[in-house]
Design a protein that fits this description.
39% strand; 14% helix; eight-stranded mixed sheet; mainly beta; 6 helices; single chain
């Protein structure tokens, strides 16, 4: 009997040893062999079936074969692979053997390498798909990430929404710097859920997790964006599972495998923030000369065109000067046919027209500079109205009047066209009094000014870093065409005035304002403030881990500002507690005399 039991144990171990392997592949991105752990179903070698693939991203100090902080029982994962009929890949986020911090992300000093995980992920996908029997469509590919791997799940899911169908972030980090040692940008997850259109998203948190407060900001950011986030609050603190268990991990695995059956469709219209000078998504390819920290923002991209902005920070950062971007479209146009292109330059308020020929695959290549709206159409195409700009710098408490300008980026109007514009918000503290506007567009009209829209705000100051801006959603109906757009307007709160303010620096060369020992983030609608020259300073205040950054403003006053002129700022400052890490935001009014 003992020999029989021993033989059975050896057979069981051999079968699982064959199904679970630590392997390497030659990585062009890293320039050397790269390791990963592979889990195959036990009967993989006995059939010709193809399988979905789940990628697991470990946290700080973890590797492809372990993550001590996750407390996850790696040896028990084979049973889940068999149960859910998947291939699972545990990737290795280690950049250098001497560096325990993975992914080349974090605070400034943590961004040390030229290697970028955004380049490695598609390379690893290509290797796994070529070496194993995988189902290769986006609907069959998903990500689960823990801690630092959690923010990577958010980031890479948003970078490649056309390559993955579902992601799960398990007590993920809320914001880090991404990029190169000499050029990296803060990526705040709470403002980037727009990148995850078409992706099913789940967040795991725990009330006893050190990052719980910061992840509540992230959760509110998803709600602000309108993303249907699947949320689970679990016991256990900063971990995946209790030691020796896989219960929580199984719930994440169940979520992503159910996504195979319930994959969200590719969005008909999408938007994307990117902090690198080149990217491709949903069949579109962008190349630019972006050479400093900040974002390229392509808004509401579809066959009728798109908007282009540059932003030094999210969501409403100042523009980056001198950026030129070339968009090569997806193959959505008729090959060899000529298309009319109209571009509206928001800096100069001018229209530019040209005609372009779609290439043999049905693509167009269009260049834009600065803040531009681009429209693409052929004769006979319907109109395609979007919100262009408005007059409100801030949404103040009480009644506001918004003057909204629309832009037709579609076909020419040959006769009077009636538009029905419905404006709403999910913010319970804001009411759009004139929520329905009906107006006629005249023949050949490209720009259309709406009558004043009354918006009543009762916003209260936020106590943490959740979005304080108001998002208005426009639904524009013209004939049989219905489209949605959104407008983001920062709130101006009714708060007490701070008088004990210290000023450091020079008004013309740049100054920072202090409340006690805290630097202030500043907002103003005063025309003498050189708003497009504002810079932000970031710092990590004492906390157990460097998760969550406080931001403050360096502002300049324009030359010629009258002596004695008083400038009013809405101001805030942020502090963090040690354990748990929570961001506390205080608000006040500041007045300075020039």
């Amino acid at each position: 009997m003992k020999h029989l039991i021993l033989f059975a144990w050896i057979c069981f171990y051999s079968l699982h040893a064959q199904a679970q392997k630590d392997l390497t592949h030659n990585s062009r991105v890293f320039g050397h062999a790269k390791s990963y752990r592979l889990y195959l179903p036990d009967d993989y070698a006995k059939n010709d079936q193809r399988y979905p693939v789940v990628y697991f991203f470990h946290g700080w100090g973890g590797r492809h074969f372990k993550d001590d902080n996750a407390k996850l029982d790696y040896t028990a994962l084979q049973q889940l692979v068999n149960k859910y009929r998947v291939i699972m890949v545990m990737w290795d986020g280690n950049i250098d053997e001497s560096e325990p911090r993975p992914y080349n992300i974090g605070n400034h000093e943590d961004v040390k390498f030229r290697v970028q995980m955004k380049d490695y992920f598609p390379e690893l996908i290509s290797h796994i798909d070529s070496a194993y029997r995988t189902l290769t469509g986006r609907e069959h590919r998903s990500i689960i990430g823990f801690s630092m791997g959690g923010i990577m799940a958010y980031y890479l899911g948003g970078r490649y929404p056309d390559k993955v169908s579902s992601i799960v972030s398990m007590t993920g980090s809320p914001e880090f710097f991404f990029g190169y040692p000499n050029n990296h940008t803060l990526y705040p997850v709470r403002y980037t859920f727009g990148n995850l259109q078409g992706v099913r998203v789940r967040m795991h948190t725990s009330p006893t997790d050190i990052l719980y407060g910061l992840n509540e900001e992230v959760r509110k950011g998803a709600a602000w964006e309108g993303l249907p986030l699947d949320y689970q609050s679990l016991d256990g603190g900063h971990m995946v599972d209790l030691p020796g268990e896989t219960r929580v991990f199984e719930s994440a695995l169940r979520f992503v495998t159910e996504g195979v059956k319930n994959t969200l469709p590719a969005p008909l219209r999408w938007s994307h923030y990117d902090l690198y000078p080149a990217f491709d998504v949903w069949g579109y390819k962008v190349e630019s000369n972006l050479h400093e920290p900040g974002y390229l923002y392509f808004k509401h991209v579809d066959k009728s065109g798109w908007g282009f902005r540059t932003l030094r920070w999210l969501p409403l950062g100042v523009p980056i000067a001198g950026v030129e971007a070339k968009m090569i479209t997806a193959a959505v146009y008729q090959p060899g046919q000529r298309y009319r292109v109209v571009q509206y330059d928001l800096r100069t308020s001018t229209l530019h027209r040209q005609q372009l020929l779609a290439d043999s695959s049905g693509r167009l290549a269009i260049t834009q500079r600065g803040s531009t709206e681009t429209g693409i159409y052929r004769e006979g195409d319907p109109s395609a109205w979007i919100g262009l700009n408005h007059n409100l710098q801030f949404l103040k408490n009480g009644q506001n009047e918004m003057l909204l300008l629309l832009f037709n980026r579609g076909g020419e109007i040959n006769q009077i066209e009636e538009l029905d514009i419905r404006i709403r918000t999910n913010d319970e503290a804001v009411v759009v009094a004139d929520s329905v506007v009906k107006i006629n567009a005249q023949p050949h009209e490209r720009l259309l000014q709406l009558p004043p829209v009354r918006i009543v705000s009762r916003k209260q100051p936020t106590s943490n870093g959740e979005p304080f801006e108001v998002k208005l959603i426009l639904q524009i109906t013209a004939g049989n065409q219905v489209s949605e757009d959104e407008i983001i307007i920062p709130s101006w709160f009714d708060v007490p005035e701070w008088t004990d303010i210290r000023i450091d620096g020079d008004a013309q060369r740049g100054m920072q304002l202090y409340k006690d020992s805290s630097r202030l983030r500043l907002y103003s609608e005063d025309l003498w403030v050189a708003s497009e020259e504002e810079r932000l300073v970031d710092e990590i205040l004492p906390a157990r881990w460097p998760d969550g950054f406080t931001l403050s403003s360096v502002v300049k006053i324009k030359e010629g500002c009258p002596k004695g002129h008083i400038i009013t700022f809405l101001a805030s400052y942020e502090t963090k507690t040690f354990n748990p890490i929570e961001r506390k935001v205080r608000w006040g009014l500041v007045r300075i005399k020039i």
